[in-house]
Prior knowledge:
This protein has helices spanning 17-23, 27-32, 42-54, 105-120, 135-140; strands at residues 2-3, 7-11, 61-67, 73-83, 88-95, 125-128. By secondary structure, it is of the alpha+beta class.
Amino acid sequence: MLEGKNIRLRPLKKSDMDFTLIWRNNPEIIHQAMLVAFPKTEAMEAGWFEHALSDISNRNIYFGIEEKETGAFSGIVQITGIDWISGTGTFGIIIGDESKRGKGFGFQASSLLFEYAFNTLNLRKIISYLVADNLATIHLH
């Protein structure tokens, strides 16, 4: 686990799926995170989780964002498509719990993930894609 001031990054748990299924069907999150706009079923989400939890490719890292004080699961931060030869990967983040947005959780989670990626994994570049009207992500970047 990676510890910040108010949050910790921890491996995803199957129980997180109860939250992510709701988040991935939220039109605002779909737009802001550039998710596929098709409705997600429990089976689809279970398939994504099974892949994320059992992925041994060493190309994708997924962390749950957890509030230290309450243990509440607030979001996901990830680096995917890691290319070990070029030392690159693609960053993504979702703060799915609306009550946790604007409280610095995204900044802390990103900082912890980047420190891990650059100093432990020895990546040299992390890229990210964002929606032009996603002001929170623009501010984060």
